[in-house]
Specification:
This protein is mostly helical. The protein has six helices and no strands.
Length: 145
């Protein structure tokens, strides 16, 4: 009988144990019910992850492209600075071209005048006789004495 009492004592009141197990069962059923939506949620999250992964493909190689463009900018910067320094002069090209055309017209006109004077000079040289000049000089010298 002692063994039965020991067994009974080890069971700690079977009604309480049954109640405890029923409470645990209810708690586990609630938890199981709350976990029913987890597989669907996992599938949804997987689809979202796959969609985000496919959308992120556009960013593949972006770091290399950025590095390449920054390197290109660095290499082109001195030329860009020269361009910016030359820009004011480039904007005056038309003004300088117009002034150049005016000067070319003036030079052309002066060349025409020069040709006329050269022809007159040649005509005068053809009429010039050195002997008459020498004779006139000697007459002036005698008159001066």
């Amino acid at each position: 009988m002692n063994s039965k009492r020991a067994e009974l004592k080890a069971l700690n009141s079977p009604d309480k144990e049954l109640e405890k197990l029923n409470g645990l069962e209810q708690k586990l059923l609630k938890e199981l019910k709350s976990l029913e939506s987890v597989p669907g949620s996992i599938d949804l999250k997987r689809r979202e992850r796959d969609m985000l992964a496919s959308r992120s493909l556009i960013f593949d190689g972006l770091d290399e492209k950025i590095f390449f463009m920054q390197d290109k900018i660095t290499k082109l910067e001195p030329e860009h600075n020269r361009y910016l320094q030359s820009l004011p002069l480039a904007l005056k090209v038309n003004e300088y071209a117009e002034e150049c055309r005016k000067l070319e017209g003036i030079i052309s006109s002066m060349n025409s005048n020069l040709n006329v004077y050269i022809q007159k000079h040649e005509a005068l040289l053809s009429e010039f006789e050195e002997s008459i000049l020498n004779e006139t000089i000697s007459q002036l010298e005698e008159l001066g004495k």
